[in-house]
């Protein structure tokens, strides 16, 4: 069974950093697009970052560009999200997602097939 497990969330002060990790089991991510999304209560899932199958292409939401970095280690079946210069508006549950198709850039939640349970990120002012 495909399982995505996020970790690394917690509480950070504005301007601080957190590193999120997504470990995937039951599925090889080596040929597939991976992404990070976030969601606050009462809001839709918001695109954060995506990375192509080989890490050759990345794309970020304007709100996090220059502050967040997505990376992947296909050998470890793991995707990371380094979050720097955190802002209170970054507060959300962060979800890792995997696409089952061709591994090009994808920015819409409906394009992803497998999701983790999420990890809470809270940024204090």
Structural overview:
By secondary structure, this protein is an all-beta fold. It is 0% helix and 47% strand. The protein has strands at residues 3-7, 10-13, 18-25, 34-39, 46-51, 58-60, 68-73, 78-83, 92-98, 114-115, 119-124. The strands form two sheets. Strands 2, 4, 5, 6, 9, 10 and 11 form a seven-stranded mixed beta sheet that branches. It is globular and about 40 Å long. The termini are far apart. The mean pLDDT is 95.
Overall strand count:
11
- What is the residue-averaged pLDDT? 95
Please work out how many helical segments DSSP would assign.
Answer: 0
Point out poorly predicted stretches: none
Strand percent estimate: over 45%
Cα Rg: 13 Å
H/E element sequence:
EEEEEEEEEEE
